């Protein structure tokens, strides 16, 4: 018993000590937070209209001056509720916090308990880095955050002016977060984005959602990106695209420097020349706009449209230079060319679009130690003919864009396999070759000049072998018919014989320099890459996905505002709607397919706004949806509907296999009713879509007040349901 008594006394003593400490702490805290009136020209009391308050007004000398915890406020008139530690300030209001914050407005509400201010009427908040302008602004001194939700403007001297519907300023981080209709305008560029994080001290901007950066010379699009507004450099990810006058650059990752009009791209690159109807592809590229040059490698491929067909050039590296009307394509190392009726191969291929000349060139190499080795030369295939030489030129008609002739310089050699014998080859060699093409891009005539030698398998009309013709002459002219030799004429013949096949020496069946290379011939676009080493693309780390900040009016702030014991005149949002343009269904944020939005004048459930209607436009089920980036949690989607027809609303995965989380089938009525579904979002890494679907041409649907709320992080047991809510319409 004595031991119990001692313990109780000790507990009482401890409780007494803790009570004193808590009481003193409370007194100190309250004394530190009490609003102080530094100056007032006149003090009056009006208990009828302002119970428990003092009315302070300015005089001719100066404004009312109020101080609280290092923050000073000046105004023409103030209502001071000393018991609630609350102030309302009117007229030419100025709020200053040290040397960092200077805010002016027509009206301010401020609580000394919560250190929270609400300002309205021509609000301007300045700090050393930027200026915020808005009609209403919320300022939380405790968290050092400012927030607007009905449109605002931020001005930063060196970076320009930023406007958005929603804006939030994290003062300690010098970070802005803008949402919806974000536009940054500077001298050099204009940026449009849906979600935009901006650091005022560095000028760094992070873009999320469909975004564009427009300058005098370029337009960059991405759905995730970074831009240094000070140094005018950045990079773009996710559907990245840059337009430079007549070029469009696309890739998984794009770096750009707007000071030098330079861009580089990595992985799955496509560069489109809109003037010359050409495309260059690869997996690493550099573009120098001012120099009109493009360099691309890693499975580089140049595609040029020619006479309603495409010419493909592939090499280890491809460079495109020159102004649009004077483009030159240079393909280096293991270069190949392919067209449906023509293909070739060389160390390098040069194509000049101004002159219409395409050159196949082999680079000089050390002589082989094997004196019997055949030198690898540029090669060209057309139908059944193979042509080689030290250099090959293809000449195109610039007006018709058709290949009309070819030239082979030095060591010209043309081979075509005999159509019947297994090991027989028609061959012509000489110093120089000139070939002419017909309208179908087939060789129709070949002239071989100087030291011409030939072997022909001569056949009659029945394709019976007459003999093997071998001769030497000054030159030879050959006429082709559908790829086969139809006729040949020798000039200044030196010798020649027609041998029966049985008497033709085996060791004379091929001419010097013979090199049949049919296995190298590209017969498709895919064949251009068959000799390439395996392609390993670098992994692009890039930027993290957009993570929405916690709501400004969160539970903590609402509890603090309630603790002030003074009702603010401004309305604290009860819900945080994740959907944008909740009543503007014609906005692009609402993706539409198979339906049309009509701007009908229909009174909405609130009795004030005009609702819109949608009708189906095709055979497919019409649908309208909006996507949000939230990836997990429990969500509630609600919308007011009326009209005629059978439709449905649903939650759906935004990507992947588009999982349907919850669906509600609805039979519409002619009166407004609010429909609601609630479901847990799977942790699948993709966002969420709110869908209104199954809309046919016979349906007429009125809709209003779409709302998506994140309710909790644990699974709800409620299923899709009809919430029986009838609107109370008031006369406008």
From TrEMBL:
The keyword Nucleotidyltransferase does not apply. It comes from the Bacteria. Gene3D superfamilies: Galactose-binding domain-like, Lipopolysaccharide (LPS) transport protein A like domain. Keywords: Cell outer membrane, Membrane. The keyword Plastid does not apply. Residues 32-194 form the Organic solvent tolerance-like N-terminal domain. One of its GO terms (cellular component) is cell outer membrane. Pfam families: OstA_2. InterPro entries: LptD, OstA-like_N. This is OstA-like protein. The lineage of its organism: Bacteria, Pseudomonadati, Bacteroidota, Flavobacteriia, Flavobacteriales.
């Amino acid at each position: 018993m004595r031991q119990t008594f001692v313990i109780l006394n000790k507990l009482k003593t401890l409780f007494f000590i803790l009570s004193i400490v808590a009481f003193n702490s409370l007194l100190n805290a309250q004394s530190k937070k009490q609003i102080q009136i530094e100056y007032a020209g006149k003090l009056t009391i009006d208990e009828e209209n302002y119970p428990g308050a003092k009315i302070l007004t300015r005089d001719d000398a100066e404004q009312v001056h109020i101080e609280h915890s290092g923050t000073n406020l000046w105004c023409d008139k103030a209502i001071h509720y000393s018991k609630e530690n609350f102030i309302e300030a009117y007229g030419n209001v100025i709020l200053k916090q040290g040397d960092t914050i200077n805010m002016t407005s027509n009206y301010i509400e401020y609580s000394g308990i919560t250190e929270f201010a609400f300002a309205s009427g021509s609000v301007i908040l300045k700090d050393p880095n930027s200026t915020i302008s808005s009609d209403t602004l919320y300022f939380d001194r405790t968290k050092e955050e400012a927030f607007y939700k009905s449109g605002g403007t931020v001005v930063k001297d060196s970076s320009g002016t930023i406007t958005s519907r929603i804006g939030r300023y994290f003062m300690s981080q010098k970070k802005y977060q803008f949402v919806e209709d974000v536009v940054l305008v500077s001298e050099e560029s204009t940026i449009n984005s849906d979600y935009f994080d901006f650091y005022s001290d560095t000028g760094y901007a992070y873009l999320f959602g469909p975004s564009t950066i427009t300058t005098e010379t370029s337009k960059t699009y991405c759905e995730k990106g970074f831009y240094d507004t000070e140094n005018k450099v950045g990079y773009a990810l996710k559907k990245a695209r840059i337009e430079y006058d007549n070029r469009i650059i696309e890739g998984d990752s794009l770096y750009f420097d707007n000071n030098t009009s330079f861009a580089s791209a990595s992985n799955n690159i496509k560069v489109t020349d809109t003037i010359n109807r050409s495309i260059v592809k690869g997996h690493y590229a550099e573009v120098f706009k001012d120099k009109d040059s493009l360099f691309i490698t890693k499975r580089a491929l140049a595609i040029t449209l020619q006479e309603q067909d495409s010419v493909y050039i592939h090499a280890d590296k491809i460079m495109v230079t020159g102004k649009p009307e004077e483009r030159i394509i240079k393909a280096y190392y293991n270069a190949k060319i392919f067209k449906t009726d023509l293909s070739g191969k060389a160390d390098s291929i040069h194509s000049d679009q101004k002159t219409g000349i395409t050159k196949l060139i082999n680079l000089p190499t050390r002589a082989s130690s094997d004196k019997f080795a055949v030198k690898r030369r540029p090669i060209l295939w057309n139908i059944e003919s193979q042509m080689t030489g030290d250099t090959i030129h293809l000449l195109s008609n610039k007006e018709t864009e058709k290949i009309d002739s070819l030239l082979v310089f030095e060591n010209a050699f043309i081979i075509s396999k005999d159509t019947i014998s297994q090991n027989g080859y028609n061959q012509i060699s000489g110093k120089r070759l000139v070939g002419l093409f017909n309208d179908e891009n087939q060789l129709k005539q070949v002239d071989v000049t100087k030291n011409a030698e030939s072997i022909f398998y001569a056949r009659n009309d029945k394709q019976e072998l007459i003999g093997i013709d071998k001769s030497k002459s000054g030159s030879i002219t050959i006429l082709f018919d559908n790829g086969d030799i139809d006729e040949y004429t020798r000039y200044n013949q030196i010798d020649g014989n027609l041998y029966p096949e049985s008497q033709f020496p085996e060791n004379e069946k091929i001419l010097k320099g013979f090199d049949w290379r049919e296995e190298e011939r590209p017969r498709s676009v895919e064949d251009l890459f068959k000799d390439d080493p395996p392609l390993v693309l670098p992994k692009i780390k890039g930027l993290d996905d957009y993570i929405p900040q916690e709501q400004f009016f969160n539970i903590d702030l609402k509890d603090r505002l309630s603790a002030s014991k003074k009702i603010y005149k401004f309305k604290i949002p009860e819900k945080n709607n994740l959907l944008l343009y909740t009543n503007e269904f014609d906005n692009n944020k609402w993706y539409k397919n198979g339906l049309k939005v009509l701007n009908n004048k229909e009174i909405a459930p609130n009795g004030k706004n005009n609702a819109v209607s949608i009708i189906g436009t095709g055979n497919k089920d019409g649908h309208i949806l909006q996507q949000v980036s939230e990836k997990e949690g429990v969500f509630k989607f609600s919308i007011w509907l009326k009209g005629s027809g059978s439709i449905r609303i649903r939650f759906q995965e935004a990507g992947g296999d588009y999982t349907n989380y919850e669906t509600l089938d609805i039979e519409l009525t002619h009166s407004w009713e609010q429909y609601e579904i609630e479901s847990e979002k799977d942790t699948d890494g993709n966002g969420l879509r709110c869908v209104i679907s199954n809309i046919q041409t016979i349906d007429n649907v009125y809709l209003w007040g779409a709302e998506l709320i994140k309710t909790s992080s644990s699974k709800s047991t409620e299923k899709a349901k009809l919430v029986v809510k009838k609107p109370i319409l008031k006369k406008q």
